[in-house]
């Protein structure tokens, strides 16, 4: 009997090695990896640049408190802000932590500007924002929340991409709308660009914030972020999964305007932004920013989509 807590329905397969898009078991079997460690190994297993970068850093410094300046953290934050809407980055270890940071930042913003009553967040039914309590109840999927009561208050769910329902849900206590740009666990549903534009307009009209959860889709769609096609600017974006290339890394991107409530002591993470994670994040960006890399992602994605449709049409 395993001593590991039984929170996963594990397959009886143990992998000992990975290379590129392949995994190898202890028995020598070879698998083509379509899972990517749940959307994390976006450059494949043991990418040479990531391996060397992490190895080099591991010989110097693994961990130091965020009470001190961490150069690679500064560098990664600068690269992210230079290439996105954001002015600041808050580093975490995972997607659910990035989501929690987003919720705290949104609420703290309205508290700071003298509107503490604005603390509720509108989310979409079928969404998934993480496994911590606030993130669980933000999505409010009964399958995930059962037995974890009492309910964490502060969230109002509406049907997927239902603009009228979102409009009706907005009230004087609404602080933000939070959606997955591409709904993951809810069925790989892409929120249409016109819907995202409409949400931005609603947020501007009612003086509330737009949080776009890109934990699963950041770096993975052929654009740096999936929301970029819509042409709008969000207020807060939590990211994770692929941004570390398989190394635990999350982040919350935020504008200067919305960051005003976050001062020393309002949030923190012991391990978030540690030197090893930061060099991993920078190494991933080294590859992502190579000429034509993201364009090739789009081309391969189109080819894969067309090929799958051919199979579907051949075997309806």
From TrEMBL:
Transmembrane segments: none annotated. It comes from marine metagenome. GO terms for molecular function: identical protein binding; pyridoxal phosphate binding; transaminase activity. The keyword DNA-binding does not apply. Gene3D superfamilies: Aspartate Aminotransferase, domain 1, Type I PLP-dependent aspartate aminotransferase-like (Major domain). PANTHER family: AMINOTRANSFERASE CLASS III, SUCCINYLORNITHINE TRANSAMINASE. This is Acetylornithine transaminase. Keywords: Pyridoxal phosphate. It holds the Pfam family Aminotran_3. InterPro entries: Aminotrans_3 (IPR005814), Aminotrans_3_PPA_site (IPR049704), Class-III_PLP-dep_AT (IPR050103), PyrdxlP-dep_Trfase (IPR015424), PyrdxlP-dep_Trfase_major (IPR015421), PyrdxlP-dep_Trfase_small (IPR015422). Its cofactor is pyridoxal 5'-phosphate.
